[in-house]
Specification:
Structural class: alpha+beta
Largest sheet: 10 strands, mixed
Number of strands: 10
Shape: elongated
Order of helices and strands: HHEHEEEHEHEEEHEHEHHHHH
Number of domains: 2
Distance between the termini: 25 Å
Number of helices: 12
């Protein structure tokens, strides 16, 4: 009976119902987009670190993120790390922003990643054309097909210039995106050093792989004692530092979270106003229920059920629209991400928002005098 009354109240005025659903839709879609962008940005920022086969990262002091590694490290740090008990391998990696001069003129900025995949520390993934052996050929690089327009190329075989040398696209990756919108370009370690004019014994990072069974924290502490001029970070710590650098120190993350909070606020206000108006229009009916002996709790349940039905309908419509936007964004430089956890959180948020909105209507009902039904 409770659901029947709630359903009839809800659908009695379809225009008001439409306004309620629009409020919930607006909130769900806006929150999904903002948090989807936040998750997508987070994944792009940490993808390189997460994909690396390493237990620890050796960085220069002050390294802010994967793209901003700071001062270069020397072979001295590498040899000291290799001499540390529990260390299996120390793999050098060169990462730097570099100017990309397009074949038809103009330039842009790329993130040049110099790595030797055979060392097993970091290699380009999602290769859709070409192989690592192709990247090892003279002057070869890999580029991502998401950034063809930015790079001024059309595919395999195109040439360009990076920093101090000419390069040729020999392999393509798919959807390896950069939060800075400077495309990732992979090449071999020695070629990256040559293009950047870096000494052959220098590296931006050293990726440390440990012996099986080695204690990560103990090895890390020993490395810290040996390497006075460098930092030793776990993957999780380096990911967290990169996220703080790009999402919060630049203000991007706060803007996305702020947009999500705005969506929640607007949606709650619209739903609260609609439920309040609906309850006010049905005060006589609620007064009749009170006169017939219905308890306050019963009437409250009717209002909450009405809010819950609005939430479920609005959520289903909102999540369908959000998934459509998600699908459209999949090949853009900044894709949205929807996880089961986010979808579940959005459903809980919608129910909470509608329950809070119902409070104003419940407060109005508590003031009903059952005797008013006899004065009509």
């Amino acid at each position: 009976m409770i659901l029947t009354l709630a359903f009839r109240n809800l659908f009695h005025d379809r225009i008001r119902l439409a306004v309620t659903l629009v409020g919930i839709l607006f909130s769900i879609v806006l929150v999904a987009i903002q948090l989807g962008m936040y998750l997508g940005s987070s994944q792009m920022i940490t993808a390189m670190i997460e994909r690396s086969n390493s237990d620890l990262w050796i960085t220069a002091f002050g390294a802010k993120s994967f793209e901003e590694g700071g001062m270069l490290l020397s072979n001295r740090e590498r040899h000291q790390a290799l001499a540390t008990p529990g260390v299996k391998a120390v793999v050098p990696l060169v990462v730097a922003f570099a100017e990309w001069r397009k074949p038809e003129g103009g330039s842009t900025r790329v993130v040049l990643v110099g790595t030797d995949a055979e060392d097993g520390a970091l290699e380009p993934w999602s290769l859709v054309s070409g192989t690592w052996q192709d990247i090892k050929s003279p002057d070869a690089i890999s580029a991502d097909d998401t950034y063809f327009k930015e790079l001024g190329i059309e595919g395999i075989g195109d040439t360009a210039q990076i920093a101090m040398g000419r390069v040729k696209v020999k392999a393509l990756t798919h959807r390896i995106r950069s939060f800075t919108q400077s495309p990732y370009v992979f090449t071999t370690l020695s070629r990256a050093r040559s293009l950047l004019g870096t000494d052959s014994d220098k590296a931006t990072f050293y990726l440390v792989q440990l012996e099986p069974g080695a204690n990560v924290e103990a090895v890390r502490q020993e490395l810290r004692n040996r390497l006075e001029g460098a930092e030793v970070l776990t993957k999780a710590e380096f990911e967290d530092r990169s996220l703080r650098q790009w999402l919060f120190r630049t203000g991007a993350g706060l803007a996305l979270i702020g947009g999500a909070l705005l969506g929640i606020l607007v949606g709650t206000v619209i739903v609260a106003q609609t439920l309040y108006s609906s309850t006010k229009d049905h005060l006589n009916e609620f007064a009749t229920l009170r006169a017939l002996g219905s308890s306050s709790g019963y009437i409250y349940k009717v209002i909450l059920a009405q809010a819950g039905l609005s939430a479920v309908i609005g959520y289903v419509l909102g999540i369908l629209i959000s998934l459509g936007i998600l699908y459209i964004s999949r090949n853009t430089p900044l894709p949205l991400v929807m996880t089961p956890g986010l979808a579940g959180a959005l459903f809980g948020l919608t129910l909470f928002m509608s329950a809070v909105s119902a409070i104003s209507a419940i407060i109005k009902v508590t003031k009903i005098d059952p005797a008013t039904v006899f004065s009509r």
